From TrEMBL:
UniProt family annotation: Belongs to the diacylglycerol/lipid kinase family.
Required cofactor(s): Mg(2+)
Keywords for this protein: ATP-binding, Kinase, Lipid biosynthesis, Lipid metabolism, Nucleotide-binding, Phospholipid biosynthesis, Phospholipid metabolism, Transferase
Lineage, broadest ranks: Bacteria, Bacillati, Actinomycetota, Actinomycetes, Micrococcales
Top-level taxon in the UniProt lineage: Bacteria
GO BP annotations, alphabetical order: phospholipid biosynthetic process
Name by which UniProt lists this protein: DAGKc domain-containing protein
Gene3D superfamilies listed in its UniProt record: 2.60.200.40, Probable inorganic polyphosphate/atp-NAD kinase, domain 1
Keyword Transport on entry: no
Domain called DAGKc: residue spans: 48-130
UniProt-recorded Gene Ontology molecular function terms: ATP binding; ATP-dependent diacylglycerol kinase activity
Length: 302
């Protein structure tokens, strides 16, 4: 495949911008951006409506999620230049990190000369209180979503360090809440839990292998349920996951399926790919329905 028209979407909040050799934008590549994420989404949608062979996004997991939604909608491949804080989706699908300018040049050059490599991966399709969207890596509910919320406030830190600092601060404020969940339409399970999270990839928080056996192309979603941990246990959950020990803890349950329905109580945050779906200020409960869409996204890399 030799791409004739490429749309390149840049996160307006990306600290790395377009530094590097950008002469490659001179021919056959249209830049889509905006001052806000909403404006960027609209600009990218407008560019794709005019016809494109490939969409490339530069940013973190939230950008990859937006790109996946639009690429799947328009039936074109997606390329990712990871410059975010976590980059868990890029890590799960084997996209390397590096200098954005170099990654961008290699990817666009490979698309133009026909040497690019392609693979298909699954998407998470979710509906929260009637609102539909997609996720590429994870839907985080409960304690890890609260950590995500706090981590987003610490923009001076990057990667796992940012997540672990937020974790320490979140432990003192967190409590168990009454959840109900059902996998593949089975009998709903009701329990007081700290975490009920659904993943497509294996890592969260910038490289923490929370669900180490998850694969983004196996046609299954993975669910981790954590119930019965005190504050000390919560503070150790993610550090223990770094070395794979958390799966042996009795409060940790790992499940797989193709659909998940989760009833989330008021005051519990919901995040998808690092972006807020519902904050910890929510005054009412929500129902989250998630379905795996096998092979829905075609990825491209140099």
């Amino acid at each position: 495949m030799r791409a004739q028209r490429i749309v390149y979407a840049l996160n307006p909040n990306s600290g790395q911008g377009l530094r590097g050799d950008d002469a490659i934008f001179a021919e056959g590549v249209e830049l889509a951006t905006g001052e806000t994420f909403t404006q960027l989404h609209q600009a990218t949608e407008h560019s794709l409506a005019n016809g494109a062979d490939v969409l490339i996004v530069q940013g973190g997991d939230g950008m990859a999620s937006m790109g996946a939604e639009l690429a799947a909608k328009h039936g074109i491949p997606l390329g990712v230049v990871p410059t975010g804080t976590g980059n868990d989706f890029a890590r799960s699908v084997g996209i390397p990190r590096g200098k954005p300018g170099e990654l961008r040049t290699r990817l666009i050059s490979s698309l133009k000369d026909g040497t690019a490599k392609f693979r298909t991966v699954d998407l998470l399709r979710l509906e929260v209180d009637g609102v539909k969207r997609v996720a590429v890596n994870s839907v985080n509910i409960g304690f890890d979503a609260l950590v995500n919320e706090r981590a987003n406030e610490k923009r001076h830190l990057r990667g796992t360090a940012r997540y672990l600092v937020a974790l320490v601060q979140s432990v003192r404020d967190f409590r168990s809440d009454a959840f109900s969940y059902a996998i593949d339409g089975g009998q709903p399970q009701s329990l007081d839990a700290e975490v009920v999270t659904v993943t497509n990839g294996r890592t969260v928080g910038g490289g923490i292998p929370l669900v180490p056996d998850a694969r983004p192309d196996d046609g299954k979603l993975d669910v981790i349920v954590v119930s019965g941990l005190n504050r000390l246990g919560l503070s150790l959950l993610f550090p223990s996951a770094l070395v794979g020990l958390h799966r042996f803890l009795p409060p940790v349950k790992l499940l797989t399926g193709t659909t998940a329905r989760i009833d989330v109580p008021a005051g519990v945050p919901i995040y998808a790919d690092g972006e807020c779906i519902r904050s910890s200020d929510a005054k009412a409960g929500s129902t989250v329905e998630i379905t795996i869409d096998p092979g829905a996204l075609r990825l491209v890399r140099a």
